[in-house]
Amino acid sequence: MKVRVSAETTEEQARVIAEAFAAQYYDDVTVLTDGGEELADVPYHGPGHVPGPEPESGPTEREQTLWEEIAEIHEGGPEKYKEQLPEQGKHFVRDRIDLWFNSGQSSAGSQTQSGNDDGFLFEDGTFAEFDADDKLPADAMITGGAEFEGRDVHFMANDYTVKRGSMAAKGVEKFLRMQQRALKTAKPVLYLMDSSGGRIDQQTGFFANREGIGKYYYNHSMLSGRVPQICVLYGPCIAGAAYTPVFADFTIMVRDMSAMAIASPRMVQMVTGEDISMEDLGGPDVHARHSGSADLVADDEEHARELVAQLISYLPDNSDEKPPRTEGTTPAKSPKDIDSVIPQAPNRGYDMTTLIDCVVDAGSWFELQPEFGPEILTGFARIDGRPVGIVANQPAQRAGAIFPDAAQKAAEFIWKCDAFNVPLLYLADTPGFMAGSGVEKEAILEKGQKMIYATSSATVPKQCVVVRKAYGAGIYAMSGPAYDPESTIALPSGEIAIMGPEAAINAVYARKLAEIDDEEERKHKEQELREEYREDIDVHRMASEVVIDEIVPPSTLRRELGNRFEFYETVEKDLPDKKHGTIL
To answer: What phi-psi label fits residue 153: left (phi over 0), alpha (psi between -120 and 50 degrees) or beta?
Structure first.
């Protein structure tokens, strides 16, 4: 279409006319003067077309000033403290955030005016303490939202270059807001901890207030079981800072870098006279082996991220959702090898992880607390892509007897699996709870009670497999028939009894055997009694009496479990109507 206008029309006016005619008549428009001079040529772009924006003029001086202020805050504390970090094997906190959320591509610490377009989504409270007399960038606390391994998460991270990552009023406020928003969004929380604790010289206004640092642990408690809380320790976290890792559902410490304790070595020496290093007081070995407060120990910062990436893949975003499923893979070892893994001799040890490798998807076994209470294995795995929590006796460690630490470890793991809807698989091969004065002092009854309580109260689908021996209260703790499992199945090597043959014969027949003078005759009688007892506790007898649901050929165990977890996926269990139990 051609449109003619007067010679006085400007090119800008002509273009406006052309765009209006193009939109009105759905046609290309050329604007000419009466003399034939072309002033504008506008092609038709279809209905609803809006002319493009004017060329960018760039940020104003006011915006440029703001970017400069943000960049200065992102530099963190004094340069001398940043220079110390590599000596300690640490990343600067904003480089750490970059590692976690931006795949190392565009640092949150060097954010440009175009912003980050990777996993780091936003930060809250960048300007905290901006007007302070002392330089306190972000008040040593970074909080915000990010995408981690395809999941939206809330996060906090201490800046150790600012007052050693200590916590004061504005940083506390940011931490509390992050937690409270997590309650609203029901999204997981990552705590990247590197804090020396409360800022003692600025404690007024945040220590004991209703909305002060004490509220951290109230919020931790409210979030507990609602969303996964995962904590990574990057430094010595002392006093109040040490409670966040123990309140978290899962805690990872970094070797040669992190520690946590109720008080510093200096304070310990002042109070008790004990001269001790931070490593010996609360280093990774202390909490991974002895206290059980650390679930895993990472070799370095990159390894810590890898461990959390694996961990979160088994967990839902919150307690209303189911764990994410993946495509199933074949086991690392053939299920046909299962029966050969289990020794013919009932008291001979073996490594239960070998059997697990025959059952679960290859590469999916993710063990937690491997050095704490090692006679029980706890960890996540997948069967046909379905996440399961595994509680398994470990005959390679102390014959698989359940000691106090192992009972505590199992109880806590069962409780977490139930909170986040992860089905439970129990693999039983234990002589039961350990006896003796030592374990009594370590509260074997109390900690055993907690394990049995957790098993009793779990409402997720449960499968119990009697692999070999399941003696005494061990069959109770391992979700035997009385504990509402969806199935109790056994391998042909299984035995269920109050106690093992040797102990039973000694308890019942010791006096009669002692009356037999001939040693050969006595041994023969002992063997005869032992064989009779074994017949009585054999799983075939238990299956005959329908104590257990099924004896399965070992080579079919993986398929059997996969089918049963699939079938019982939607099972619903109700607990008695009460406020809560009193055991945990």
So the answer is: beta
DSSP assigned state of 347: T
Q: Which residue has the tokens 């919150």?
A: 318
What are the Cα distances from residue 39, in Å, to 33, 234, 294, 567? Answer: 7, 67, 75, 75
3-state DSSP helix/strand/coil % of the chain, to nearest 5 = 40, 20, 40
Instruction: Say if CB 91 and CB 160 are below 8 A apart.
Output: no
Radius of gyration of the chain (CA): 33
Beta bridge partners of 260: 237
Does residue 121 fall inside a structural domain?
Answer: no
Q: Is the predicted pLDDT of residue 246 greater than 60, yes or no? A: yes
Which two structure tokens, joined as six digits, stand for 151?
């999941």
CA distance 369 to 247: 16
CATH number at residue 225: 3.90.226.10
525 in any annotated domain: yes
Report helix, strand or coil for 356: helix
Chain CA centroid to CA 282, Å:
21
Residue 572 one-letter amino acid: E
What three-state secondary structure class fits 251? strand
The per-type count for the chain, helices as H runs and strands as E runs, is: 21, 20
Residue 406 lies in a domain: yes
Q: What confidence tier does 455 reach under pLDDT thresholds 50, 70, 90?
A: very high
- Which is it for strands 259-261 and 236-238: parallel, antiparallel or unpaired? parallel
Pair (230, 376) in one structural domain: no
- The predicted pLDDT at position 113 comes to 45
CA neighbor of 479 nearest in space, from 410, 574, 557, 398: 410
Same domain, 281 and 162: yes
Range of the domain at 466: 335-494+538-567
Percentage of the chain exceeding pLDDT 90 = 70
Q: How many domains does the chain have?
A: 4
- Which phi and psi angles does 120 have, rounded to 5°? -75, 115
Per-residue confidence (pLDDT) for residue 109, from 0 to 100: 44
Give the span between the Cα atoms of 43 and 2, in whole angstroms: 12
